[in-house]
């Protein structure tokens, strides 16, 4: 029962860790707050597709100057998770390999195996639910507006390629994140192992930094897209998954790699400064 004690939990929330060493407990709070914001904003999207008494009021909001700013902020909130993922990846690998002279393919495969064991069983259960029982639960006046394609495209999720294969007909639309995150996890692990070679550290960091800026620029220019997400009402009323910006910029791993890479660089910096008293005094 003490887990629900407000005084006990409040003291933990305001407690400040002063001991040297790794202390990343604050990331749990950041993740919780970010998740609440994402759930709150995304839960409002289906309301746009509901029958409306006066559509003029909804359309008027799209003309407000604050609306594109709010939508862009909402859209890129998920990038916080990519930053945290990259940071934790770097810190964990550095900690696990600090006493290892050589790390090779066996270490990489072991990390992939543990990642799949942690994610895949529950993920497969959710996919099975969406492919079997979910279609029976969505009957109603607007049930056809929320259609998943798990009966045909479930395999793209299990291969973590659902953000590339049939992305406009996804099985569990929001699962694009798991695909992109797993792909970035694989690439990030390879890059961390390459950076263990002293001669490759600087070239890899430069490549990561350049690709973070160049990849979105090239794709946006190639497909003649807006530089940021533009919420177009006709796509919202039909399927956001048909929005060109969503298909080419929002869900591919290469356009999300920049924030993941910067998270990795932040993790590397943090790991090397965590035991430095001078650096600790700054915080």
UniProtKB/TrEMBL annotation:
MF-aspect GO terms: acyltransferase activity, transferring groups other than amino-acyl groups
Q: Which residues cross the membrane?
A: 29-48, 76-94, 115-134, 174-195, 204-223, 257-273
Keyword check for Membrane: yes
Query: Which Pfam family is an annotated match for this chain, by its short name?
Result: Acyl_transf_3
Acyltransferase domain ranges (all copies): 27-275
Q: Report the domain of life of the source organism.
A: Eukaryota
This chain's protein is named Acyltransferase 3 domain-containing protein
Q: Which InterPro entries match?
A: Acyl_transf_3_dom (IPR002656), O2_lipid_transport_reg (IPR052728)
The organism's taxonomic lineage, starting at the top: Eukaryota, Metazoa, Ecdysozoa, Arthropoda, Hexapoda
Q: Which key words are in the record?
A: Membrane, Transmembrane, Transmembrane helix
């Amino acid at each position: 029962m003490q887990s629900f004690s407000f005084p006990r939990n409040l003291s933990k929330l305001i407690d400040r860790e002063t001991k040297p060493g790794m202390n990343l407990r604050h990331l749990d709070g950041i993740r919780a707050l970010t998740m609440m914001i994402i759930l709150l904003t995304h839960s409002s999207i289906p309301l746009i597709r509901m029958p409306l008494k006066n559509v003029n009021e909804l359309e008027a909001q799209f003309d407000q100057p604050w609306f594109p700013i709010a939508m862009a902020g909402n859209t890129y909130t998920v990038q916080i998770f990519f930053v945290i993922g990259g940071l934790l990846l770097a810190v964990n690998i550095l900690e696990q390999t600090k006493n290892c002279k050589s790390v090779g393919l066996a270490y990489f495969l072991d990390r992939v195996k543990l990642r799949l064991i942690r994610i895949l069983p529950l993920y497969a259960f959710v996919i099975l639910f969406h492919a079997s029982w979910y279609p029976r639960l969505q009957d109603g006046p607007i049930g056809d507006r929320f259609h998943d394609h798990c009966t045909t495209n479930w395999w793209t999720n299990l291969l973590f390629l659902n953000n590339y294969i049939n992305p406009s007909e996804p099985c569990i639309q929001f699962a694009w994140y798991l695909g992109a995150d797993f792909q970035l996890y694989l690439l990030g692990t390879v890059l961390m192992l390459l950076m263990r070679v002293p001669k490759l550290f600087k070239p890899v960091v430069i490549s990561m930094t350049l690709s973070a800026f160049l990849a979105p620029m090239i794709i946006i220019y190639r497909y003649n897209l807006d530089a940021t997400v533009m919420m177009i009402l006709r796509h919202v009323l039909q399927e956001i998954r048909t929005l060109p910006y969503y298909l080419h910029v929002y869900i591919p791993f290469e356009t999300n790699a920049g924030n993941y890479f910067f998270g990795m660089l932040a993790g590397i910096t943090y790991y090397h400064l965590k035991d430095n008293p001078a650096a600790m005094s700054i915080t």
